[in-house]
Specification:
Helices cover about 65% and strands about 5% of the residues. By secondary structure, the protein is mainly α. Strands 1-2 form a two-stranded antiparallel sheet. Helix 3 runs antiparallel to helix 9. The longest helix has 24 residues. The radius of gyration is 27 Å and the shape is flat. The chain starts with 8 loop residues before the first helix and ends with a helix.
Length: about 280
């Protein structure tokens, strides 16, 4: 319950019935006492755990680095869809034209697509995931709308080291591009879900990190062994190199992750042992 409950009339009446002589403190006093207790317990923990174990890299940031290494293999295909989204949102008229095509193909009249944010891979994932269902709309606009085609043929000037160069937009996505991106997005979903879970600020997450790291390692390894999809295999291989840099050596991992999982009553030491086996340490 929030601290303010101690100021509520019903709560005070309840306490008075229990002991008429007792006068409960106000919420500020209760909060101060709890905070004092928190610092006392924190000091006790620090006295038995080395300071090095209490400092750890952000797991979500490491996920970001791992995924970006994989995404680099499909940068042209991702840019193709990203340019389509930019074109659609570049003017109200174009957005309206996109929605007209959506209505013709029986989508909602207010259909839209997420924008990409270059520095946030999960935004790229959201853009891809929302774009897939509009694949037919993109195709129709590409073949029937002159301005759509012209947009991708446009030369864009860029200045590098004082010299002006011409850079060409990546064209609209082809059939093969869609297929590669759909399989890649399906692979990315586990990283996306893990990032959302570990980004929570109102619930503890330290006991979840180890299990998620193991699950993602297994997923990467499966794709490396998947000879039926050369593109995913290549991306997974790149991601494994980055994964191993942070979590490939148990001696370099923060052991507090194991402690946190062992303290979770759902896992205890049984899951700890299972995870060690998954990591290949026996």
């Amino acid at each position: 319950m929030p601290f303010k409950v101690v100021d509520q009339k019903d709560f005070r009446a309840f306490i008075r019935d229990l002991n008429p002589k007792y006068k409960p403190p106000n919420r500020h006093k209760v909060a101060a006492v709890v905070l004092e207790l928190y610092f006392e317990e924190k000091a006790k923990i620090k006295s038995v755990i080395e300071g090095a174990h209490l400092h750890m890299r952000c797991a979500c940031h490491i996920f970001n680095l791992i995924v970006k290494d994989g995404m680099a293999k499909l940068s042209c295909e991702i840019d193709a869809i990203g340019n389509c989204v930019k074109f659609i949102h570049s003017s109200p008229a174009r957005l309206e034209s996109f929605r007209e095509y959506c209505v013709l193909l029986r989508f909602h009249k207010m259909s839209s697509i997420h924008f990409d944010v270059v520095i946030r891979w999960n935004a790229t994932y959201e853009m891809l995931n929302s774009a897939f269902k509009f694949k037919e709309v993109f195709s129709k606009m590409a073949f029937e709308c002159d301005s759509f085609i012209a947009y991708f043929k446009e030369k864009v000037s860029k200045e590098v080291d004082g010299m002006t160069t011409k850079a060409k937009w990546v064209g609209h996505p082809e059939v093969d591009d869609w297929e590669r991106l759909v399989s890649f997005a399906h692979f990315l979903k586990k990283f996306y879900d893990a990032t959302l879970t570990l980004s929570a600020i109102l619930t503890p997450t330290s006991h979840l990190i180890l299990s998620m790291v193991i699950a993602l390692q297994v997923e990467i390894q499966e794709q490396i062994l998947n000879a039926s999809n050369a593109t995913l295999q290549s991306m997974a291989t790149s991601m494994k190199l980055k994964f191993d840099k942070y979590w490939g050596d148990i001696e370099k991992m923060n052991l507090i992750l194991f402690v946190a999982q062992a303290l979770d009553p759902r896992y205890k030491f049984e899951m700890f042992e299972t995870n060690l086996e998954e990591l290949g340490y026996g």
